[in-house]
C-alpha cells in the first residue's frame, strides 16, 4: 500500500510538471523566444510555469485561502492557459529522448548515467518516507499546514513563519493535493530539475562525460542528498532558478535577444522569492544586464520582472509588520514590538557560531567552510570536490560568456554569505555553479596536461563517490523500509 500511495503521488507530480511545461511553452511562444535544444526548452518552460504557479498560489493563499477546490481550479486554469503548449510537450518529450540517447552513446556516459539513476532512485524513495526534517517540522511544513483553508495571517508565536517564501506555497499546494508525500516529492522534483539544468549548463563548458560527472557529484553530495530526500526544505528551488537565470543571460547577446534579459529577471526574482538571502541574485543579474546591454531600459525591465516574480513574500510581511524582512529590520522600520531575546535567538540561528567580520577570518571561511561543518553550518556535507579542483579554474575558457556569468554569480553569492551569515549550507543555490566551473577547469586541465592530471581527477572523484555511497546508504537505511512498506 505504501508503494501504491507513493506511485499515485508521483503521478500527480508528473501531471503538475506537464501543466507547468505546457503553460511555460505557451508563454515562450507568445513572447517570441526560440530555444534550440529540447531539454533547454523544457527547463525554461517549467521555470516559467513553476514561478507562475507559486506566485498565484501565494496570492490565493493570502486572499481567500488555499483549499482543495481552489488548488484544483488553479491547476485547471493553468492547464487550459497552456493552450498550444500541450502540443509542444509531446514534441519536446520525443526530441529530448533522442537527445539523451545521443548523450549516453559512449560506455563511460552510460556508466555515469546508471550511477545518476541509482542516486536519484534512492532520493525519490526517501522523498516518500514520512517527514522527519527538524526545520520542516518546525516551520517549513507546519506553517503552510496551519494556514490551509483560510486566508494567510501572521503567526507571531512562531516567528520563523515570516521566513516563508513562495517555495513554501508549493509545499502548501502539495499538502492540499496529496499530503506531505506529494509536498516532499515536489522538492525532489526541484532537485531533478536542478540536476538537468546543471547538465545543460555544464555541457556548454566541457565534454559530455565531464558534464555528467558534475551532475553525479551534485546528486550524491550528502547535503544535496538530504535536501532532495527528507529535509523538507525548499531551498533547492533557488538553485534551479539561479541556473535558469544564468542560462537565460547567456542568450542575451545582440539586440534581437534582449528579451531574454526580462526572462532572466523573472528567474532571478523567483529565486529571491524562496528566501531572504536570495535577493542578492536579482541585484547581480540586473548589474550584468546593464553591463551587457549598456541600456538602462532593459536593466529596468529586468528589475521589474524580478520584482513581479519575487516581491510577494516581502510585501506580505510589510503589510503585517511594517518590515519586509521581518524581524531583521524591525528595530528601524517595523511596527511590531518584539522580544529582544527572541530577536537575538533568531539572529544566532542564521549565523554560524564562528561568525566574524575580520578580513583574515573571512578568508579563513572561504578556505575551510567545506571542511569545518560544525563551525559553518554543515558546510562539510557538500564535500571537498570544489576545494580540491579549485586550482584548476585557471584552465577554464574564460572567453566564454557563460563561464564569466556563472563565476560572477558564484562569487557574489559566496561574498554575500561570508559578509552576512557564514552559514555554508545557505550556499546550496551556488553549489551547482561552483561544480560546473571547477569541472570545466578539471576537463580543460586533463586535456592540456595529459593523463596524469586526468587520472588524478578521476581518482579523486572515485574516492568521493565511495564516501558518498557509504554515507548516503547509511543515512537511507532507516528510511527505505518505511518507503517500501516493510
Helix content: over 70%
Rounded mean pLDDT is 91
H-E string: HHHHHHHHHHHHHHHHHHHHHHHH
Radius of gyration over alpha carbons?
22 Å
List the helices and strands and how they pair.
Layout: H1 2-30, H2 38-63, H3 68-81, H4 85-103, H5 107-126, H6 134-140, H7 142-147, H8 166-178, H9 180-202, H10 208-220, H11 222-229, H12 236-250, H13 259-272, H14 280-293, H15 296-310, H16 312-321, H17 330-333, H18 340-349, H19 359-368, H20 385-389, H21 401-420, H22 431-449, H23 451-476, H24 480-483
Helix pairs in contact: 1-2, 1-3, 1-4, 1-9, 2-3, 2-4, 2-8, 5-10, 5-11, 8-9, 9-10, 9-11, 9-12, 9-22, 10-22, 12-13, 12-14, 12-21, 13-14, 13-15, 14-15, 14-21, 21-22, 22-23
Which characteristics define this entry?
486 residues; mainly alpha; 0% strand; 71% helix
Please provide a written account of the structure.
The chain is an all-alpha fold and 486 residues long. Helix content is 71%, strand content 0%. The protein is built from 24 helices and no strands. It is globular and about 65 Å long.
Concise account of the structure shown:
This protein has 486 residues and is mainly α. Helix content is 71%, strand content 0%. The chain is built from 24 helices and no strands.
Amino acid at each position: 500500500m505504501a508503494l501504491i500511495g507513493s506511485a499515485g503521488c508521483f503521478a500527480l507530480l508528473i501531471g503538475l510538471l506537464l501543466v507547468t511545461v505546457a503553460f511555460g511553452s505557451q508563454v515562450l511562444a507568445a513572447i517570441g523566444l526560440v530555444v534550440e535544444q529540447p531539454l533547454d526548452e523544457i527547463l525554461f518552460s517549467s521555470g516559467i510555469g513553476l514561478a507562475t504557479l507559486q506566485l498565484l498560489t501565494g496570492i490565493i493563499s493570502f486572499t481567500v485561502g488555499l483549499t482543495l477546490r481552489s488548488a484544483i481550479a488553479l491547476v485547471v486554469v493553468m492547464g487550459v492557459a497552456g493552450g498550444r503548449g500541450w502540443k509542444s510537450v509531446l514534441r519536446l518529450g520525443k526530441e529530448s529522448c533522442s537527445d539523451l540517447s545521443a548523450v549516453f552513446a559512449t560506455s563511460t556516459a552510460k556508466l555515469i548515467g546508471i550511477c545518476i539513476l541509482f542516486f536519484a532512485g534512492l532520493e525519490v524513495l526517501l522523498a516518500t518516507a514520512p517527514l522527519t526534517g527538524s526545520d520542516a517540522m518546525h516551520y517549513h511544513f507546519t506553517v503552510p499546514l496551519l494556514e490551509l483553508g483560510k486566508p494567510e495571517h501572521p503567526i507571531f508565536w512562531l516567528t520563523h513563519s515570516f521566513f516563508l517564501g513562495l517555495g513554501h506555497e508549493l509545499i502548501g499546494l502539495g499538502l492540499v493535493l496529496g499530503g506531505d508525500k506529494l509536498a516532499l516529492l515536489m522538492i525532489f522534483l526541484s532537485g531533478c530539475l536542478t540536476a538537468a539544468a546543471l547538465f545543460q549548463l555544464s555541457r556548454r563548458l566541457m565534454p559530455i562525460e565531464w558534464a555528467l560527472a558534475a551532475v553525479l557529484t551534485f546528486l550524491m553530495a550528502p547535503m544535496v542528498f538530504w535536501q532532495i530526500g527528507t529535509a523538507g526544505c525548499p531551498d533547492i528551488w533557488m538553485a534551479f532558478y539561479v541556473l535558469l537565470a544564468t542560462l537565460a543571460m547567456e542568450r542575451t547577446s545582440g539586440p534581437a535577444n534582449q528579451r531574454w534579459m526580462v526572462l532572466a529577471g523573472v528567474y532571478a526574482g523567483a529565486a529571491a522569492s524562496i528566501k531572504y538571502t536570495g535577493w542578492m541574485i536579482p541585484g547581480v543579474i540586473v548589474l550584468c544586464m546593464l553591463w551587457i546591454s549598456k541600456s538602462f531600459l532593459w536593466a529596468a525591465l529586468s528589475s521589474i520582472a524580478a520584482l513581479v516574480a519575487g516581491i510577494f513574500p516581502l510585501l506580505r510581511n510589510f503589510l503585517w509588520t511594517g518590515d519586509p524582512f521581518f524581524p531583521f529590520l524591525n528595530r528601524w522600520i517595523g511596527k511590531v514590538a518584539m522580544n529582544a531575546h527572541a530577536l537575538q535567538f533568531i539572529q544566532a540561528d542564521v549565523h554560524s557560531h564562528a561568525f566574524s567580520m575580520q578580513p583574515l577570518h573571512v578568508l579563513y571561511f572561504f578556505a575551510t567552510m567545506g571542511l569545518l561543518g560544525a563551525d559553518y553550518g554543515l558546510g562539510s556535507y557538500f564535500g571537498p570536490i570544489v576545494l580540491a579542483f579549485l586550482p584548476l579554474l585557471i584552465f577554464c575558457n574564460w572567453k566564454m560568456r557563460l563561464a564569466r556569468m556563472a563565476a560572477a554569480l558564484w562569487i557574489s553569492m559566496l561574498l554575500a554569505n561570508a559578509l552576512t551569515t557564514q552559514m555554508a549550507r545557505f550556499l546550496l543555490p551556488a553549489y551547482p555553479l561552483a561544480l560546473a566551473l571547477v569541472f570545466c577547469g578539471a576537463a580543460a586541465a586533463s586535456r592540456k596536461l595529459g593523463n596524469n592530471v586526468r587520472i588524478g581527477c578521476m581518482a579523486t572523484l572515485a574516492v568521493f563517490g565511495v564516501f558518498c555511497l557509504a554515507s548516503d546508504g547509511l543515512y537511507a537505511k532507516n528510511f527505505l523500509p518505511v518507503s517500501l512498506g516493510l
